[in-house]
Fold:
Amino acid sequence: MRIVENVVIIGSGCAGLTAAIYCARADLSPLLIEGSQPGGQLTTTSEIENFPGFVEGISGFELTDRMRKQAERFGTRFLSDSVAFVDFSSDVKKITCESFAVESRAVIIATGAAPRMMNIPGEREFFGGRGVSVCATCDAPFFRKKVVAVIGGGDSACEEALFLSTFCERVFTIHRRDKFRASKIMADRVLSNPKITVMWNSVLHEIFGSDRVQGVRIKNVGDSLISEIGCDGVFLAIGHIPNTAPFKSILAMDGEGYIISTGESLVETSVSGVFVAGDCSDRRFRQAVTAAGMGCMAAISVERFLANGGLI
Ligand code: NAP
Structure:
């Protein structure tokens, strides 16, 4: 017997789980495909202090676990698999995973993005609560009056360095070239900030420490000399990679693979009936609360789309 779902949600981070809660409460009986990292990026964050409602903070794992239980309570069904390819060419969308295939009238893509990593010694070892972070907005308050290093020369790196400078005693920005990629205004703010020292032409070679980060070794790209900087934290800000490979050539994307919203709302894609939420389309904010907000918007859009017989 052919079963066509109302809505399939792809991705189990904050955006996907929030979409599931809303779709389930709207009696759409959503099916959520969890992917290879159930819970998404939040599960690698130690403590979240900026999600509204959690006065004392909450661990990333617990927050997503609670969201999952909430989605399950209202009737979300979960499948543990990863999407291999999709066919969105007709009204009924086909989603093929590694071990099964489903059809659905609407789809919400919430596959997130992965921070670009450098694959250097110490990076994985000290990641998530031991000194290495990919989000200053999330983790800067843990480095009050400490010394940190920010890696990268784009707008994110400049923004992170400036934000960190309001908490930290000193910030080193380590950039592989002799000028910033960031917009002039951001670059100028960094350069005129007395708490920030820029290490030009330098690449991160190693992060060292014992229980926690104690410093970094950087290599000068000109003479290959290695020098050491003592610091308590390292913030990687060298870009993100959106998890959108199965949708390439099917949905409109920018040059880096972020899904572009094309309709009036932030969550409509170039294909009718396919919606998007969270970091796979948001390169700018990348917060749990903004991803959750987009998940809510996508779910309400699906509800209206289905109620209107396929019109938004
Ligand atoms: P980005 O613009 O791609 O910059 C990435 C930075 O990391 C570049 O400086 C790059 O160096 C460096 N990098 C990349 N791979 C590296 C590696 N393996 N080792 C060392 N350095 C490496 O990324 P982003 O800063 O995350 O910004 C993404 C987009 O969001 C941009 O369009 C940006 O304008 C926008 N954004 C805007 C704002 C704002 O307006 N306030 C804030 C954040 C982001 P090179 O320069 O040598 O390539």
Notes: The chain has a mean pLDDT of 94. DSSP finds six helices and 19 strands in the chain. The radius of gyration is 21 Å. Residues 4-114+240-307 form a domain with the FAD/NAD(P)-binding domain fold (CATH 3.50.50.60).
